[in-house]
Specification:
Number of domains: 2
Distance between the termini: 70 Å
Number of helices: 5
Radius of gyration: 25 Å
Largest sheet: 2 strands, antiparallel
Number of strands: 2
Structural class: alpha+beta
Length: 127
Amino acid sequence: MKIDRIHYEELFPTGIYANQRLRIEATVDENDNTTECYQTLKTHVQQAFQALNPNLEEMKGTHVLKVPQEPPNMNQKELDSAIEQEFNELKERIVATTSKAAAGQLLMDSSFKHNMELKQLVNNKTE
């Protein structure tokens, strides 16, 4: 069997239910090491993806929730209480804020940015 063309393809996640597929092909000679060729193609595909999506790395991964530092002896009830206290303090700050943009920024900077109750408070503010 004579192999004269190879390709490398990779599917990159770009968001929730969103992907980008990149593929590259190459012609190989009989003296080429196909494993090295595949590694080269893989590198080119990954570099192309990064060049096409320069800001994607900032958005990559899951949303991280800031949980209060848990002392070694904190039980679940105490942890729940600390989270509830942080939530209530943020809620009070959003209510006290007059600007919708400032209230939105408070929410986005918090570990509760996906909480519907707080989102509604921000959306009810006028500019």
